[in-house]
Amino acid sequence: MSPVDLGLPRVPGAAAPASVTLPADRPATGGLVDRYGRVATDLRVSLTDRCNLRCTYCMPADGLPSLAREKVMSRAEIARLVGVATRELGVQQVRFTGGEPLLRKDLVEIVADVAALEHRPEISLTTNAVGLESRARALREAGLDRVNVSLDTLDPDTFATLARRPFLERTLAGIDAAAREFDLVKINAVLVRGVNLDHAAELLAWCLERGFELRFIEQMPLDADHTWDRSAMVTAAEVRGLIGERFALAPDVEPRDGAPAERFEVRSRATGDRLGRVGIIASVTEPFCGDCRRTRLTAEGGVRDCLFAHTESDLLGPLRAGASDAVLADLWRTAMWGKGAGHGMDDPSFTQPDRTMSAIGG
Ligand code: SAM
Ligand code: SF4
Predict the structure, then answer these.
(1) Whether the predicted pLDDT of 189 surpasses 60
(2) How far apart (Å, rounded) are the C-alpha atoms in residues 47 and 183?
């Protein structure tokens, strides 16, 4: 039997993992394969745990204690680990997230470093867009390919209620700048009953008019306040019904191909004209774990094989202690080899991870 079934334990400061018992059946070469045959090619990198908003479904009102600066991956460490992922492990897409990645003063340089890698991945950013207005062009010029902006409502008061900050104008200015610089802007929205559920169709209309692809994300139990309640959350089926009252939805003709969002073509109910697309990410009610292609790096350089994982495998400690790329790749492979079959939210033994979405990197 394998001594490590759920990922590799932390390697405190070790340069090489000689002291760690690695599972004998793990792959010694190749990509990030797990025991269920899934291959992770899509890397999420959290650049910081800090944020300038306090979205109720993600962070507590008073924020969380920030990581000490020296615990967070530096620009050079990010480039090194992403390089290992793309060169040794077959990662093809890299998305920078957080916390709020725009809070990194060196974000443009980080993007440029990754764009300069020999095995250059597709590079994208998930952001609340506060401050994007002044940096969108530099980010595009540095090599950023795509931007996803989180926007839950167009109403300033509701925005301030959900994000606990009155920054709607700044987010909208950031979205405008993104639209000028990037061909495709995606908007992420989380619907919360009694707060912005009624805004869903209006938000979709606004996105369609501007050529943005809106994706509704089911709220997951990753909030700091632990107030998530399955019976109260807004489900994908409910969203389909709600927006279907105003728009005609048809399954998208393009294959889903492992994408988390189920996509629909949106047409006008009056004229039948095609207006664009919408996606719904039903992580809770229609999980897609069987097709998951994700691997994650926390801001502290820990590999998480799933948003809901309870363990992480430290790469930053070994990197700082002098581990070679081959050793780092082996540690990463081993971590992903232990990925569970699914997030297990329907299992009575399911427990919410200690980390919130902001601290994992959404
Ligand atoms: N700060 C950036 C932002 O908001 O886009 C990036 C980090 S944020 C954690 C990434 C995405 O996670 C956002 O689209 C946000 O709406 C989503 N998110 C946060 N908490 C969530 C939760 N509990 N359930 C579902 N999605 C969540
Ligand atoms: Fe910050 Fe993004 Fe979390 Fe909102 S969802 S609190 S913007 S990290």
Answers:
(1) yes
(2) 24
Mutate to test the pocket of ligand 2, among 47, 51, 66 (most ligand atoms within 8 A of CB): 51
Nearest atom, ligand 1, residue 152 CA: 16
pLDDT at 67 over 50: yes
Rounded CA-CA distance 48/327 in Å is 25
What CATH number does domain 36-360 carry, 1.10.3210.10, 3.40.50.620, 3.20.20.70, 3.40.50.2300? 3.20.20.70
Is the CB of 318 inside a 6 Å radius of any atom of ligand 1? Answer: no
Give, rounded to a whole angstrom, the gap between the first and last alpha carbons of the chain. 33
**3-class SS of residue 295:** strand
pLDDT in tens, 325-344: 999 999 999 999 988 878 87
Mean pLDDT of 210-220: 96
Residues at CB less than 6 angstroms from ligand 2: 51, 53-55, 58-59, 98-100, 128, 150, 357-358
Q: Which ligand 2 atom minimizes the distance to the CA of 126?
A: 2
- Domain map (residue ranges) of the chain: 36-360
Q: Please tell me the number of the ligand nearest to residue 162's CA.
A: 2
pLDDT, residue 348, reads 61
Q: What pTM value is reported for the model?
A: 0.91
Q: Which residues contact 128 (CB under 8 A, 6 or more apart)?
A: 51, 52, 53, 100, 102, 149, 150, 163, 167, 171, 174
Is pLDDT of 158 > 70?
yes
pLDDT of residue 101 exceeding 90, the answer is: yes
